[in-house]
Design goal:
Blueprint lengths: L7 E15 L2 E14 L3 E5 L6 H8 L7 E6 L2 E2 L6 H10 E4 L13 H12 L5 H14 L16 H13 L5 E5 L7 H18 L2 E6 L2 H7 L2 E6 L2 E7 H6 L4 H7 L7 H6 L18 E6 L2 E5 L1 H22 L1
Helix pairs in contact: 3-4, 3-5, 4-5, 5-6
């Protein structure tokens, strides 16, 4: 899935993640995941609860081991057994923003310590004055004040705590950030502020994001490309606008049908589409990722691919007629 002239920062190659469930049974949480993330982009991973998106994010962070396949960061394998030095390099350059800002911060530690933890672990400061200056700058970058350092996480609102979580990740000057549903625990009014903040920091620092979410309307706002995941399998990958204009996999269409519409009349009259896997090709041919259009991939059999090609051609003709 190469894109000419773009630098690949992260590669997921045929990755499986399985968990033992007892009695020699295994749960396959992620199955044969394949995609590249390009430097400087926001790549979104979207799916319903239990689809495997967080599991895959945690595999990138080396929290969940891969049972098959490999993960490459800047061309080097970071999955499986690696040296202690390489492991520290992963921690240093790949940071995570967690879903629940309350649970991801140490309630007994001051904000100063929470934000400084990475600096302490990697000794990324010359002296105490330099450390304090870095913490102050990190807090100011996310819209908080230096005097907040002496407070504790429970003294902040959800949105402020998430800003602390972002500051804690950014202070390490990472190259890649896994943002695991970073706004789902926040009030709607605060979500846009946090998304704008993340976009601002991305542009200022040339960051790359893997943005994990279940809300497609949020993803459209922030993502350059989107991968849709269902029951551990990635079923469609496309640029954001392409996915919204020409969704092709039935599961993607089902997800899009649940995105709320601002017009109450449209919302009242439209039908939610329920995904029914039994309507897919049942011939037994193994499914694989196939390229429908440049950069637009779908997980399908050859028979389904022919149907999808015909369907997308028809959608393009209808679009051309509307514009003429």
């Amino acid at each position: 899935m190469s894109n000419e002239g773009r630098e690949v920062i992260l590669s997921i190659k045929h990755v499986d993640v399985t968990f033992e469930t007892g009695h020699k049974k295994k749960l396959v949480a992620v199955k044969d995941a394949n995609f590249d993330v390009y430097k400087g982009e926001t790549f979104a991973l979207v799916g319903e609860s239990g689809s495997g998106k967080t599991t895959l994010g945690r595999a990138i962070m080396r929290i969940n081991p891969c049972s098959a396949g490999e993960i490459l960061f800047e061309g080097k394998r970071i999955s499986g057994k690696i040296s202690r030095e390489e492991d520290r390099n992963v921690v240093r350059n790949i940071q995570m923003i967690f879903q629940d800002p309350a649970a991801s911060l140490n309630e007994r530690a001051t904000i100063d310590y929470c934000v400084s933890e990475g600096l302490y672990n990697f000794h990324l400061y010359k002296d105490e004055a330099d450390r304090v200056a870095k913490v102050d700058k990190a807090l100011e970058d996310v819209g908080l004040l230096p005097e907040h350092k002496s407070r504790y996480p429970h003294e902040f609102s959800g949105g402020q705590r998430q800003r602390v979580g972002i500051a804690r990740a950014m202070i390490m000057n990472p190259k890649f950030i896994v943002a695991d549903e970073p706004i789902s625990a926040l009030d709607v009014s605060i979500r846009a502020q946090v998304l704008n903040l993340m976009n601002k920091l991305k542009n200022e620092r040339d960051l790359t994001y893997l943005f994990i979410a279940h809300d497609l309307s949020v993803v459209r706002f922030i993502a350059d490309r989107i991968a849709v995941i269902h029951h551990g399998e990635i079923v469609e990958i496309a640029e954001s606008e392409t996915l919204f204009e020409y969704p092709i996999h039935p599961y993607t269409i089902s997800l899009l049908s649940t995105v709320p519409m601002p017009d109450p009349l449209v919302e009242k009259n439209r039908k939610h589409i329920v995904y029914d896997p039994s309507k897919l090709d049942q011939s037994g041919e193994p499914r694989e990722m196939r390229e429908l259009r440049p950069g637009h991939f779908v997980h399908c059999t050859s028979q389904e691919f022919a149907q999808y090609e015909e369907k997308i051609s028809q959608m393009e003709r209808e679009q051309a007629e509307r514009e003429s």
